[in-house]
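I'll show an entry:

:::
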Amino acid sequence: MADQKQQFTKVNQLRPLDTGLNLNVKVINAKTVAQRGRIQGRFAECLVGDETGIIIFAARNDQVDLAKEGNTLVLTNARIDMFKGSMRLAVDRSGRVEVGEPASFSVEESNNLSLIEFERLDVVV
């Protein structure tokens, strides 16, 4: 099982509520967000992307230190969360965020998947 090569997903292939994603992305910018309420820890919204597009990555706690502008991140077992109708990339405890080799690609900034608004439809059968 250790010999299996991970399948990496491109940003333009992401869909709402996807899970178990592996991505190789470059951090375009990162800003720390002050949290309100009872939630403990640090939180940053980072714009990350690859050669197919960009998306917002919600970095939490130790992930904030790794998500610095210009770093290339390897996200393992990531998921797509929905926030106010738009997609956000996140990695919880079951996943990993690591700083990878510097990106050999240029980021396609004109395709921002976080700007696409989705509407939830409940179908009753």
About this structure: The longest strand covers residues 21-32.
